[in-house]
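## Example record

The block below lists the input lines for one assembly entry, exactly as stored, with component labels intact.
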Amino acid sequence: MLSSFDRVIDRKGSGCFKYDAMKLIYGRDDLLALWVADMDFAVSPQIQAALRHRAEHPVYGYNFKAPAFKEALDAWLMKRHGWNTTEHKLISLPSLMTALALAILSLTKEGDGILIQSPVYPPFHSQASDHGRKLLINPLIGEDGLYRIDWIDFELKAAEAKMFVLCNPHNPVGRVFTPEELSRMADICRKHNLIIFSDEIHADLVYAPHRHIPIAALAEDITLTGISPAKSFNIAGMGTAVLISQNPELIKPVEKLNFALHTYMGNNMGIAAFTAAYGESEAWLEELLLYLKANRDFVLEEIPKALPMIKISPIEGTYLAWLDFRAYGLSEDQIMRVLRDDCRLALNEGSAFGEEGRGFMRLNFGCPRSVLEEALCRLHKFPKE
Ligand SMILES: Cc1ncc(COP(=O)(O)O)c(C=O)c1O
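Predicted structure tokens for the full assembly:
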């Protein structure tokens, strides 16, 4: 039922970062929470039932992932993305960023170049430097809000890099890369012997006519793909992600480190939620996508009426809007202050996604429409010029 997404759920006190850490981050807790990338919707009834069922069994010992775990994912990837992964090796980890850390640590060495396309999800930046690797940035070129790849720069940086970390669909700019872009990236990576780590956590949140293509389907032998139901099924707190690859030479070293660090075990609830998400929640996801698409259209149409100087990037995928405030000529601190103290809104500041994001704000529209309408009213308090 589409209307179930209209339900406003009070998440305060549930131990969630978005609401319970707001005071810590913004200095006040009375803001509309349009920041952290999880949604304010109840998860699918199938996931709720699977969790209840698992909780009712009173023993919570060490896990074994039944074949149903991978089978649910394989069937999902085949049906939704036309990608056959039945012969792929899968390893499971607590999060996609754990997968990226393990891939960097086991497949590159200190000083090796890690190529990313900024602005991008903040840990992409920190993972390279935290592990003593050299961060190589291929800035995405934004023109009138639409982002494209600077190919000359991409190849120049690729020549120096060991690994390319792709974010597709892209957080925060909302691009879903085309088959042409993906094959060109894959060709350049192959030419310069790069490993591709493809973060596809937003793969199922794509709006027609755009279509998600796993880059591995174009370059199986050089790609590791990180997959997780965290975003599409709103179970980011369940701590269950996977890394897959067809190439044993790529995945075996990561698996070895996953064992050595004991990050492979997973948790009872996450395994149940993962299996019910991919195995039973497709109809729920279809409804979610309709709701999110309407929210996206609302954001694209209505926010520029409240803030005429703002530019919003087209949103091909994700539930994140990328708002360009630069025409206001305010510093990022000033924008944040007005949004927080006058509009009472919590958004993410753009520079957290890299210097290329300075002057932008990220708005999460994975919330009931009434919350977005309230946000829009509050945005009218932002100075008009
Ligand atoms: C592109 C991207 N990758 C990874 C994550 C986080 O995933 P995990 O919590 O599994 O590390 C996010 C969360 O916003 C994201 O946007």
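The CA atoms of residues 209 and 316 lie 8 Å apart. The chain has two domains: 2-44+283-379, 49-281.
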